[in-house]
From TrEMBL:
Keywords: DNA-binding, Transcription, Transcription regulation. This is LacI family transcriptional regulator. It comes from the Bacteria. It comes from Planobispora rosea. Residues 11-65 form the HTH lacI-type domain. The keyword DNA repair does not apply.
Length: 339
């Protein structure tokens, strides 16, 4: 039908704009998946595209704009962790669902060692991608700064340590941890340990700070062990805690996998949960609802975090000014049986 309307030539962006009754820029924004378009305009453009049979010529556009229509998600962890732990699955789902509306392709890269990072940096700055999402950064990782310096828009998941990035998305980890520990205090627990996350990550530092906030001025002593968010590290930390503090009556862990590891050790030691020791996790992962007893956990909105990261990156790729380049999402405690 479209072919007859414009004399057999391939329909142009201008033809779509004219039929939809909008400017050329609006059509371009709709095609590029920008959120800054009204629902009415978006529908009008999609109707015009359908009617005219317009097909965006991506190859021609790439030559003009140097766009690749590809976004990289870089995770500074091992494959084992990425496919095992609920945080990654939720975040990647959120990123994927937001990008699916934009026509941008997502590639996943995992890099742990300095060598892997260097190789990856060469790839990411070599015009293979339009933008980069980074999660699970450790320490003052130089990668985001180098990407920005090379003109590659970058958005980080989780507040990084030792860096001042332009744009990142995080959960309110400190408030979530504080709420969890105050809940334990309200239940009359007075020997409350924590299994904290890695202290070279903002999330690890913030959740430990929340634990300390809650105990401040209560006279309840701090009992701190450390893990790396994995179930194995939760088991090892719990064994260490019980060896030194056999009388502890509660443990707040900085992730659900560490909580599940801690619960396994408590059961092996013949401790009743929550009778002898109450346990609270952080993630509100699917596994939390199915553990025995079901795990009380701080809910962090991983999918929403992923979606926010993707929206911010798409806006940056499209050259839009970000009103709020840093987004912090709320957390809340989900009460189940373990505490």
């Amino acid at each position: 039908m479209g072919a007859n309307m414009n004399g057999g030539r391939r329909p142009t962006l201008e033809a779509v704009a004219a039929l939809a009754g909008v400017g050329r820029g609006t059509v371009s924004r709709v095609i590029n998946g920008s959120p800054k378009v009204s629902e009415k305009a978006r529908e009008a453009v999609h109707r015009a595209i359908d009617e005219l049979g317009y097909v965006p010529n991506r190859a021609a556009r790439a030559l003009v704009t140097r766009r690749t229509d590809t976004v990289a998600l870089v995770v500074s962890e091992s494959e084992l962790r990425v496919f095992d732990e609920p945080y990654f699955a939720g975040t990647i789902r959120g990123i994927g669902s937001a990008l699916s509306e934009t026509g941008l392709q997502l590639i996943l890269a995992m890099a742990q060692s300095a060598q892997e990072h260097e190789r990856l940096e060469l790839y990411l700055t070599g015009q293979h991608v339009d933008g980069v999402l980074l999660i699970s950064l450790h320490g003052a990782d130089p990668l985001p700064g180098r990407l920005e310096a090379m003109g590659v828009p970058t958005v980080i998941g989780g507040r990084p340590l030792g860096l001042d990035p332009y744009s990142y998305v995080d959960a309110d980890n400190r408030a979530g941890a504080r709420q969890a520990v105050k809940y334990l205090l309200a239940k009359g627990r007075r020997r409350i340990a924590t299994i904290a996350g890695p202290q070279d990550m903002g999330v690890g530092v913030d959740r430990l700070a929340g634990y300390r906030d809650a105990l401040l001025a209560t006279g309840v002593p701090e009992i701190v062990a450390y893990g790396d968010f994995s179930e194995e590290s939760g088991m090892a930390a719990m064994r260490g805690l019980l060896a030194v503090h056999p009388d502890l009556d509660a443990v707040f862990t900085a992730s659900d996998p560490m909580a599940l590891g801690a619960m396994r050790v408590l059961r092996e030691e013949g401790k009743d949960i929550p009778g002898d020791v109450a346990v609270i996790g952080f993630d509100d992962s699917p596994a939390a609802a199915h553990s025995v007893p079901a795990l009380t956990s701080v809910h962090q909105p991983t999918e929403a975090m992923g979606r926010q990261m993707a929206h911010l990156l798409v806006s940056r790729i499209n050259g839009e000014h970000l009103e709020q380049p840093v987004v912090i999402l709320d957390t809340h405690l989900v009460e189940r049986e373990s505490a």
